[in-house]
Amino acid sequence: MSRLPLCRAAELAKDAPPQRWLVDALWVERAVGILGGEPKSGKSLLALELAVAVASGAPCLRRFAVEKRGRVLVYAAEDALAVVRERLEGIAAAAGVAFGALDLYVITAPTLRLDTETDRQRLEETVGIAQPRLLVLDPFVRLHSIDENAAGEVAPLLGYLRRLERAYETAVLLVHHVRKGAGKLRAGQALRGSSELHAWGDSNLYLCRRGDSLRLSVEHRAAAAPDDVFLSLPAAGRPLALKIVEQPHAAAAQTAAATAIAVPHQRVYDALAAAPQPLALAKLRQACRIRTSTLCTILAALTTEGTVRKTADGYTVVR
Fold it and tell me: What does pTM read for this prediction?
């Protein structure tokens, strides 16, 4: 039997690897985690917003940049396939991307039970073949027949999903409900079932109704969380896409933030304009000496303005 590896404390690496985002500020690359919320709070819509963003490279909710686009797999257990398509088409339209070109696949199996060995093997084979950057499973309650309050039953299922992430380098987003009457609890504590669910997540998103809008809160295991974001649900007859709405205090904060990044904003544009070829995010960050999260925000704004575009080799100005 071989012993466990050891390293003298003084010989441990001094610098942690740079933080990489799947979706800037919302979801860490290869993170597993929960998208939780009350019934009818837009959880499924937000999950699909993230899916379309990763599959297309367009900013999620028209604000949060995607560092590197990639294939997405979605399993929507509670919605008819026609409803899933309608929602995806609406989100793609709002994002300004071609629905038919999305590298996004929907698992169409009528049931998927991750507490059975057969379905675990089927999902793993599917992930192994598709090699997605993001796997969306919606909702958790339809994926098993275990007791969600029993840590001993929940932990093996979550361990299986963690193994998928490590084996295939894919992020895993699990949609889940919160407890009834949990409005006064902290977001993570409000999740229904065992505390294993909250502890498992590297990135977690929480939706809560606040009057006519939804409040989105974010937490990460190893990164700072952004300020809460307020969203509105789509009105009847409009594209089925969530929209960010500014609260008075949030609008003031956004104005201050915009002023703070005015100089780096120009620095990023000048670096791209001077480059003879597109610059990858890492090279652009090095040239501008700007944090990744700030740089992604600036690039998303420049892309939305139409002054910068993203190519397969990186970012370049629109000449």
Answer: 0.75
Cis peptide bond prior to 132, omega within 30° of 0 = no
Of 142, 135, 140, which Cα lies nearest the Cα of 164?
135
Radius of gyration of the chain (CA): 20
* E strand residue ranges, 178-228: 203-210, 213-220
Q: Where are the domains of the chain?
A: 21-246, 261-317
* Region class of 317: left (phi > 0), else alpha (psi between -120 and 50), else beta: beta
Rounded to whole angstroms, the Cα distance separating 214 from 232 reads 6
Q: What is the 3-state secondary structure of 232-281?
A: ECCCCCCCCCCEECCCHHHHHHHHHHHHHCHHHHHHHHHHHHHCCCCECH
CATH of 261-317, one of 1.10.150.450, 3.40.1210.10, 1.10.10.10, 1.20.1250.20: 1.10.10.10
- Cα dihedral 107, 108, 109, 111, rounded to 10, equals 90
Regions of the chain with pLDDT less than 70:
1, 181-187, 235-239, 247-263, 319
CATH topology of domain 21-246: Rossmann fold (3.40.50)
* Strands 203-210 vs 171-177: parallel, antiparallel or unpaired: unpaired
Three-class SS state of 214: strand
